Amino acid sequence: MDETSRTTLELLYNISRELTSDLDLRTVLSRVLMLSSRHVGAERASIIVLDGNQAVEGALIVNDLLLERSVEHWNNVLQDGLAGWVFRNRQAVMLSDTSQDERWAQRPDDAVSRTGAKSAICVPVMAREQVVGILTIVHPRPHFFNQEHLALVQSIADQAGIAIYNARLYDSLQAVTRRYRELFDDSIDPICITGLNGQILESNRQAIALTGYPAEVLVGKTMQELLKLPAEWLKDHVETLGAGQTLHQEALLWTASLSTVPVEVHVRKVAFPNGDVLQWILQDITERKQLDALRDDLMAMVYHDLRSPLSNIISSLEMLNMLLPVSDDENLRALLSIAIRSTGRMQRLINTLLDIYRLEAGQPITSRAMTEIAPLVYEAVDTILPVAENKGQQVDVQIEPNLPPLNIDADMIRRVLINLLDNATKYTLFKGKITLSVYRKGERVEFAVRDNGPGIPPDALEVIFDKFARLQSERFPKGIGLGLAFCRLAVRSHGGEIWVESKLNEGSCFTFALPIPQTEDGLSMKNN
């Protein structure tokens, strides 16, 4: 995923969170416009909210300032200009040059002597197949917007349509108490109203059904008690709530039957006539968690199904290598060698995926054995040596003599070393140098893989160990982002730790440490 795609997804995610964090229409509109205009560097952005054929609300952002406009103003805008055309035709429009399109209503600042021509995108905001608004984004430079910008603004408008619809419900609740009561009880999400201390004052029918407690029993309980949150949780977030922001938290809801339900919790402060309260919206995410588990099970099944035929291929290639006469064509033997190395790489990847699945599930390592370090290290080096030699790289191995054996899963630690060495060959330039050092330090044995590649940005030093994390730069090789995640899981499962030190344009050093096993008298094993 490139940087543009990542920032676009981040914007849509932030807008989605903002739209679900507040139901006040004016607040929602201003937040959407502010995020949208900042992302594309727009000069102005506006959104008109419609009820039938009439404008009932609107918001305008100009150079990051929210400006007030009357309902009459917004209805006049709908009569002429681009917004009116989009409303009547229910079609999105992108203008490369506003001075060249008659649908654009010229303003005084559009004159050549002032800010001049601009580019604009105008899209209908839809909700339940009805036009509920018009969203317009204007950039001060002509020919700025492209199809990607149009698709992005349309996505924002789609989310805004849902937000406008929900905000109208909220306004109705504020205006009509009876209607509020009906919507509160009929909400598809469990909702609890509490005091600022988290003590429940009121719950809707969905909350009563989800918790299994009668309404009169729920009153007086605290949400911290139901969700097993720390007693100080609300106090720790009082500033966030006081600023009008919404808290988001995944938790386990304990029901009356002492069973648990995974929920996503959204907490916000609401101003009531008799004082501020907290609104807790609980979303049952049981199905999502089950789907996650099903996905993991499916992945594990696929990996298992891949292992068997791949093992057959590897065995067949090794048999061919053994049966092939020494005098045969060297080119044929070279091709066979490439095939053997490539299938070996595939097998290591599949085993890595399986180990990630098992280790994340908390399964212990069952195949530990006392293992000599030097043979293990040289086996890992031999695996990556052909690639390093093809790039003219020098691989230097330094092993401290008389190191004690380690109680480890040899295959897993070998793959950790191969992953780190493989990364070093990828990031090290042609004719560069890679050093693998193994030495004892206190009660641990440390393995350090150093390269003289481009280095890692400081803000990425921790992120790179996360699953699917990749460095976003043209100079970095592409990958699926599982290698270092596996390394961290594997090392930690052995009671060790892994870290990286890096300087830009100088190189990186990945180091992991494994504990030396203890003898029965509690002393570490003597050096051999």
TrEMBL record:
Cite the EC number. 2.7.13.3
- The reply on keyword NADP is no
**Which reactions fall under this protein's catalytic activity?**
ATP + protein L-histidine = ADP + protein N-phospho-L-histidine
Offer one Pfam family short name for this entry: PAS_9
Q: Which keywords accompany this UniProt record?
A: Kinase, Phosphoprotein, Transferase, Two-component regulatory system
The enzyme's main class, written as a single word, is transferase
Its recorded name reads: histidine kinase
